[in-house]
């Protein structure tokens, strides 16, 4: 099953502000969420109902998954020191 990946406006801006090489790596991992929204190494965030995160080097991609409608919504792309604040 393929999921549709959408971006929050803030997540899109955060991705565009990254260094080009880092942005390519992050975007590649985000694209892979369309095939497997819960890949090995993903974690469910405590204190949030439906938020997940994946690591991409020093960056974290925070997203939610809706299995009923088959979509993944990327909420934030941040450096690890800022991701959980």
Tag the structure with descriptive keywords:
5-stranded mixed sheet, single chain, YaeB-like fold, 34% strand, 85 residues, 2 helices, globular, alpha+beta
How would you describe this protein?
A five-stranded mixed β-sheet has the order 1-5-4-3-2. Helix content is about 25%, strand content about 35%. The protein has helices at about 10-15, 20-30; strands at about 5, 45, 50-55, 60-65, 70-80. The radius of gyration is 12 Å and the shape is globular. With about 80 residues, the protein is an alpha+beta fold. A hairpin with a 4-residue loop joins strand 4 and strand 5. The protein has one domain: RelE-like (YaeB-like fold). It is built from two helices and five strands.
What Rg, in angstroms, do the CA atoms define?
12 Å
Indicate the mean pLDDT. Answer: 94
What are the secondary-structure elements, in order, as H or E? EHHEEEE
Low-pLDDT residue intervals, each spanning 5 or more residues: none
Give the helix tally.
2
CATH topology: YaeB-like fold
Kindly report the spatial arrangement of strands forming the biggest sheet.
1-5-4-3-2
What is the CATH architecture term? Answer: 2-Layer Sandwich
CATH class call:
Alpha Beta
Anisotropy-based shape: globular
Separation of termini?
33 Å
Summary of the model, kept short:
By secondary structure, this protein is of the alpha+beta class.
Layout of helices and strands, plus pairs?
Elements: E1 4-7, H1 9-16, H2 20-32, E2 43-44, E3 51-56, E4 59-66, E5 71-79
Parallel strand pairs: 1-5
Antiparallel strand pairs: 2-3, 3-4, 4-5
């Amino acid at each position: 099953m393929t999921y549709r990946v959408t971006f929050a406006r803030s997540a899109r801006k955060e991705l565009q502000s990254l260094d080009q090489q880092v942005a390519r790596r992050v975007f590649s991992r985000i694209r892979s969420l369309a095939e497997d929204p819960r890949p090995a190494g993903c974690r469910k965030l405590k204190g949030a109902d439906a938020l997940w995160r994946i690591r991409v080097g020093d960056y974290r991609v925070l997203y939610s998954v809706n299995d009923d409608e088959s979509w993944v919504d990327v909420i934030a792309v941040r450096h690890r020191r800022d991701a959980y604040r």
